[in-house]
Write a structure and sequence with these properties.
This protein is 85% helix and 0% strand. The chain contains twelve helices and no strands. The chain is an all-alpha fold.
Length: 284
């Protein structure tokens, strides 16, 4: 992942921002969305219900969560955006740490703090653009110092819980290596454009490892055959997501502010149920 990250960083200094944007969208709409397209199959592995009964019940629940997310953003976009960032932060942290941290009530806070460090490191190093996006979605103007406050607080919480957990022998990791990773992220986030920086972390450090973990959970190992099985079972849901996104683009691409808001709503709508599914798997 480090090698791939520095390769993408080389792209940052070798290509213009338009080329970065094209590649970023390609990675997000392939690996990024694909890693959340097999949720129903994952839930089925933990369900004792009949296949037909499970499908309709799980599909109804999944659609209901997506619908509630859209309504949430339509009614109170600022609060919905906060929940989206918190849920995504927890999800990023859980993916990165769950295999190495003993489950406990404190681990939920630990995962969230780590994910918030990632998000607000990205926000702080691209403060002007992030504030503009938040204003378009919520109508609220955020100062860059607020990103720094949340970043420092989250990092303090992350490091404090780590030290406490290490003392109780509930976590065994090389923290020097983890801090090095955060330094690498800071360099990438500062050097690359906002979209390209986000796609590098989201795809290289989250989506691809998640794909590997899900494939292992479903089929016992990762190889060409099992990856093809994963693609086969997730393709329909991925295609539906892409068609939905394509319709949004066709209808609203000329209204940049509105389309950007709808993009965030769309990503949030497919993120919330995925976070619930992965949490269920990790707790199981």
């Amino acid at each position: 992942m480090i090698v791939l990250t520095f390769f993408f960083l080389w792209i940052t200094v070798s290509f213009n921002i338009e080329a970065e944007a094209v590649l970023a969208y390609f990675l997000i709409f392939t690996f990024g969305i694909l890693h959340g397209s097999n949720d129903l199959k994952l839930i089925q592995q933990t369900s004792s219900a009949s296949k037909k009964m499970f499908f309709f019940r799980a599909l109804a629940s999944y659609v209901a969560v997506i619908a509630m997310t859209v309504v949430f953003f339509a009614i109170v976009p600022a609060l919905a955006l906060v929940f989206f960032i918190l849920a995504s932060s927890y999800h990023f942290g859980e993916q990165h740490w769950s295999a190495r941290v003993k489950p406990s009530p404190l681990s939920y806070i630990f995962y969230s703090c780590y994910g918030l460090v990632i998000f607000f490191l990205l926000f702080y190093t691209n403060a002007e653009e992030v504030s503009s996006i938040i204003y378009q979605v919520t109508g609220i103007q955020i100062l860059s110092t607020y990103y720094l406050y949340v970043l420092c607080t989250s990092f303090g919480g992350f490091l404090g819980i780590y030290l406490w957990s290490q003392r109780k022998k509930e976590v065994k990791v090389n923290m020097v290596k983890e801090l090095f990773y955060l330094l690498v992220f800071a360099i990438v986030f500062k050097t690359a454009s906002l979209l390209w920086a986000f796609s590098i972390y989201f795809v290289v450090w989250h989506s691809i490892p998640s794909l590997m973990d899900q494939t292992t959970y479903l089929y016992g190992k990762v190889n060409k055959s099992t990856l093809l099985k994963y693609l086969k079972t997730s393709f329909v849901y991925w295609l539906i997501s892409m068609i939905g996104l394509g319709i949004l683009y066709f209808l609203f691409h000329e209204k940049q502010g509105l389309f950007l808001s709808l993009m965030i709503y769309f990503l949030a709508a497919i993120t919330f149920p995925h976070v619930i599914v992965m949490n269920r798997l990790n707790q199981g």
